[in-house]
Amino acid sequence: MIATLTWLLGTALAIAFGGALMAILNARYFRRLSPQAGTPGAIDLYLPMRDEAANARACLASFLAQPELRRAIVIDDGSSDESAAILAQIAREDERVLLLSVPAGAPAQRSPKARALAAAIAAAPIEAPFALFADADVRALPGALGATLATRAALDVGAVTGFPRIRVRDFWAAGCALLPRLLLLEAFPMRAASGIDPRFAAGNGQWFLVERDAYARSGGHAAIVGLVEDIALASALKRSGTRVACVDARDCVVVEGYDGLRASLDGLGRSLLGQVGILGSLLYSAIYLLRALLPIAALVAWLHAFSTGLRAWFEIASVLTLGAAAPMLAWHSAAAAVERPRGVPQPPAAPFALALGLWAFCSGIRGGQRWRGRRIGRANPRPL
């Protein structure tokens, strides 16, 4: 029993200190975008939408106000609400907006978004020097496109993928919203990602800028076979020799987060399941469960130290306390990118991460998930 507990706490300490060290190292390479002007007409925007009547106008308005935008190609992917009518009206009002729909004969792909984007580019090829792929819940703040172009040039890369600020409305959504950024900061070596090794690929489909020629060399969305299209695109770009940079876009881009716990688990669980698979989702929960043991173990160790007065127990309690506090480094950075209503606190990550991993695991066991009325396919049963 003592040996097992010692092993568990040792593993938890290694995970906690390793994650904190990774977050410290990543801070150097996770460049923060600063709003600025860029080359007018340098970007073609590709924006898939399905049942986005609530987001369509605000999203497009934020992009159309950017002078760097040349065209906005919007793909209606079989919406059942008023999205198509709203988009058609916007297209009539602004000639830069081109409205397309996914043809019935488009090749099948596991990712509906990859299928929609592949069909859009086949119908309206990239004409500007750069293409930007985004989502309907994105709001581009003034200077966002210029900042992304400038950072790409400064880093001398072929693609830039940004991680935006997330605007939430309640406590439960706030607890889930910081989890993707936490995973990026604590587990993804951004220095290695600056190279062209496809094993170290990260992407965020909410904000993904790529050079036109680099996109063509990679095969684009038409060649994507995986469920998580943004990471698959980053991998394809790297395999074709293009470097991809991850950037902190919190000052330039805002995303409307999910409402409530159920919607957050559905949306984020879909991404987690597609990225790491069924067993990987279970491992994700296990890691946070182990880390949650550290504060409890530290409290018990301090009580025992004061009751016995033994120096060894004071040293053990100190190490456990440091281990319990280490994840706060990444948590503080991730929480700063979550915009919450006044009076709503930012909850700890562990219970929400545990719930997310178990939710994704159970969804995978049941045979995949449904999203916007569609089954999106069974995930890889093994971690990537």
TrEMBL record:
<keyword id="KW-0812">Transmembrane</keyword>
<feature type="transmembrane region" description="Helical">
    <location>
        <begin position="312"/>
        <end position="330"/>
    </location>
</feature>
<dbReference type="GO" id="GO:0016740">
    <property type="term" value="F:transferase activity"/>
</dbReference>
<feature type="transmembrane region" description="Helical">
    <location>
        <begin position="350"/>
        <end position="368"/>
    </location>
</feature>
<dbReference type="Pfam" id="PF00535">
    <property type="entry name" value="Glycos_transf_2"/>
</dbReference>
<keyword id="KW-0472">Membrane</keyword>
<protein>
    <submittedName>
        <fullName>Putative Glycosyl transferase family 2</fullName>
    </submittedName>
</protein>
<feature type="transmembrane region" description="Helical">
    <location>
        <begin position="282"/>
        <end position="305"/>
    </location>
</feature>
<feature type="domain" description="Glycosyltransferase 2-like">
    <location>
        <begin position="47"/>
        <end position="162"/>
    </location>
</feature>
<keyword id="KW-0808">Transferase</keyword>
<keyword id="KW-1133">Transmembrane helix</keyword>
<dbReference type="InterPro" id="IPR029044">
    <property type="entry name" value="Nucleotide-diphossugar_trans"/>
</dbReference>
<dbReference type="InterPro" id="IPR001173">
    <property type="entry name" value="Glyco_trans_2-like"/>
</dbReference>
